[in-house]
Write a structure and sequence with these properties.
By secondary structure, this protein is α+β, with helices and mostly antiparallel strands. About 30% of the residues lie in helices and about 35% in strands.
Length: about 140
């Protein structure tokens, strides 16, 4: 029996998840979207969200921006607790491992993410929180 996966409680994100799944992984026009499944750090349940990504070679790069909110997004807190995630880009999901970029890695990867989605710069300016950059590498 397959474990139940809970979609984001954010209605806007949940709609994007449904559309992504219904279209076999077609992203929003002009966007690099991936479907990220993490294990809830307190519930232990599988949780899924849509995240914009950049590419650095074979790695997927994410910004844990939470649209400039003063707290990290739940998906980021979940993957810090359990770095084994599932990613879907296109039609096929795959297992991966996630980690926060080191201080040495972050500047270059942050610039990649700002080039991918310029609003990230405004999100960083809107919060005193240092927005983490996440590196995801395929494991299977």
């Amino acid at each position: 029996m397959q474990e139940e996966v809970l979609d984001s409680p954010n209605a806007w994100v949940a709609r994007h998840i449904r559309r992504f799944i219904e279209t076999d992984g077609r992203p929003r026009p002009g966007m690099n979207d991936l479907l990220l499944t993490t294990r809830g750090r307190t519930s232990g349940r599988l949780r899924r969200t849509m995240v914009v990504y950049g590419r650095d070679g074979g790695r997927y790069i994410l910004a844990a921006s939470n649209a400039g909110a003063d707290k990290h997004p739940a998906w980021y807190l979940n993957l810090v607790e359990n770095p084994d995630v599932t990613v879907q880009v296109g039609a096929e999901p795959f297992p991966a491992s996630a980690r926060t970029a080191t201080p040495e890695e972050k500047p270059q990867l942050w610039q990649l993410m700002v080039a991918t989605m310029p609003s990230y710069q405004g999100y960083q300016e809107a919060t005193s929180r240092d927005i983490p950059v996440v590196i995801i590498e395929r494991t299977g």
